[in-house]
Amino acid sequence: MKLILQSIANCLAATCLLAVIGCGGAEGPAVYPVTGVILRDGQPLADANVEFLPDNGRPSAGSTDKEGKFVLEYIKGTRGALKGSHKIRVVERFQGANPESPTAFDPNNPPAEPKSYDLPQPAQINATTNKFVIDVTAGTAISSS
Which helix (H) or strand (E) holds 132? Predict the structure, then answer.
């Protein structure tokens, strides 16, 4: 019996220790906040996905609101992007043919394929302010820090 109680106590102590220090011990790479607005033909582009793809490492992504504004997320719960050069891709979300039933398909009125924009010039993410105005029509991403 004493051996069983000792084993349970050791398991509880190990579990508490892991909970306090975490599994990996490291917090991961440094990421920096990135926000902005996406425009198409001078108007905010709502309901689009934006990806910042670094030369090395994990990409960051976000979605635009009704005003075309976005905030990048590196991993769930961690906002930002890695420091360095990033390619930018914007994809309009797929819009169903029938807004009342987005999964319904009407062969007489098929939904348009979502448009994708790959900007030709990379954006630089730095350790200070990273605010961008992305114009998919012109293919530009201007830092407005």
Answer: strand 131-135
Q: What share of the chain is helix, strand, coil (3-state, %, to 5)?
A: 15, 40, 50
Of residues 136, 128, 145, the one with CA closest to residue 83: 128
Residue given tokens 């976000």 in the structure block:
62
Residues 61-76: pLDDT tens digits?
999 999 999 999 999 9
* CA distance linking residue 58 with residue 49, whole number of Å: 16
* Whole-number average pLDDT of the chain: 80
Strands 131-135 and 35-40: parallel
Residue 128's pLDDT is what? 85
Predicted TM-score (pTM) of this structure = 0.71
Residue type present at position 50 = V
Give the chain's domains with CATH numbers.
29-94+111-143 (2.60.40.10)
Task: Give the HSE-up count for residue 19: Cα atoms under 13 Å, Cβ half-sphere.
Answer: 6
Q: Using CA atoms of 15, 18, 19, 25 in order, give the dihedral in degrees to the nearest 10.
A: -170
